[in-house]
Write a structure and sequence with these properties.
Strands 2-1-3-4 form a four-stranded parallel sheet, with helices on both faces. The chain has two domains: 253 residues, Rossmann fold; 56 residues. It starts with a strand and ends with a helix. By secondary structure, it is mainly α. Helix 4 runs parallel beside helix 6, helix 6 crosses helix 10 and helix 6 crosses helix 11. The protein has 13 helices and four strands. The chain is 51% helix and 4% strand.
């Protein structure tokens, strides 16, 4: 099984709870260590995460700028080397000395987009899709990555629609349910996976994960809808925690899922790069004029009275060449 969901949505909390219920997440030394933004741990195999990043890069994108993924993309023969690597990663994480468990799993938000690829490597029975209020996700991404709200909203929609389409038999878990009704949430998870119901010790251990101080960026109950249409669209789909996937027409939802509809961040970055290119060219022209004037004075035998030409900024020309390319 796999844990899917948008980044900053509580997928780590879900994975940790599943581990307490009896799911094996593989060799402990292969899991990413806790970080400042996730002190309770990520429960994420670092080799799987790195492979997913390489796969997204091979496809022309990244986790925060996902590539276009039309149906059938996962069958491309050019991905065969990554398939072999993925098989080795799974053998390394779950083979050999791992204790016998009825179910193994791995977690990475990127699986929301990349699950079809992993299904060409190994059978996957089901997924647990963790969803959080898009306003809270946007606040968290803004604090951690500096991502603007419209981009965060489209990322939230993209990951959600992709995760649903890639596994129609998923179990949806609201991030807030862990805090508001933990025993029931654990019982639902166990039942979906065919595991034994959580006993008292498991529930007590799970309560230790719910440090309220770690639940940052809680959206106010009466938070008015953002006037940005992309944020409003995400809020309509969230529907107060009762997902309404029909809030986005089918054709538009499919375009979002594949990555054809995205925020205007690409255009803004291109405009910014063009402005930087113009500025760099002007700076280089001014420096060259200063150099020519100084050389002319020197050739005429006059004492230079102007300031010597400044040393070119390190990397300035290479920056200009990169932008031109």
């Amino acid at each position: 099984m796999c844990v899917t969901g948008m980044h900053r949505s509580g997928t780590s909390l879900t994975a940790h709870a599943l581990e307490l219920l009896g799911v094996s997440f593989g060799a402990g030394d292969r899991l990413m260590p806790p970080g400042p933004d996730n002190p309770a741990g990520y429960w994420e195999n670092r080799d799987i995460k790195e492979l997913n990043d390489d796969l997204l890069a091979r496809l022309g994108g990244s986790w925060d700028q996902p590539p276009v993924l039309d149906r059938g993309w996962e069958q491309e023969p050019s991905l065969d080397p990554l398939r072999g690597r993925a098989s080795d990663v799974l053998d390394d994480a779950f083979g050999g000395t791992q204790p016998a468990r009825r179910l193994i799993g791995w977690k990475d938000p990127r699986l929301s987009l990349l699950l079809p690829f992993w299904r060409t490597v190994t059978p996957i029975t089901t997924t647990i899709l963790t969803v959080r209020d898009p306003a809270e996700v946007a606040a968290s991404l803004g604090a951690r990555n500096g991502i603007e709200k419209p981009q965060a909203a489209v990322l939230w929609l993209r990951y959600l629609f992709a995760a649903v389409a890639n596994d129609p038999g998923h179990l949806f878990v609201n991030h807030g349910d862990f805090f508001e009704d933990l025993p029931r949430t654990l019982a639902v998870l166990a039942a979906h996976l065919g595991l034994s119901p959580p006993d008292r010790d498991t529930t007590v251990d799970a309560h230790q994960l719910l440090d309220p101080s770690l639940r940052h960026h809680v959206a106010p109950a009466a938070d008015p809808a953002d006037d940005n249409p992309l944020c409003a669209m995400a809020a309509a789909v969230w529907n107060g925690g009762s997902l309404d996937l029909e809030a986005v027409p089918g054709v538009a939802a499919e375009a979002i899922r594949c990555g054809w509809l995205r925020p205007p961040i690409d255009g803004e970055l291109l405009a910014r790069a063009r402005a930087q290119a113009v500025e760099l060219r002007d700076r280089i022209r001014r420096r060259r004029r200063q150099e020519i004037a100084a050389q002319a004075e020197s050739n005429a035998g006059a004492e230079p009275h102007a300031q010597p030409p400044p040393t070119p900024v390190r990397g300035e020309s290479s920056q200009l060449e990169d932008i031109d390319r």
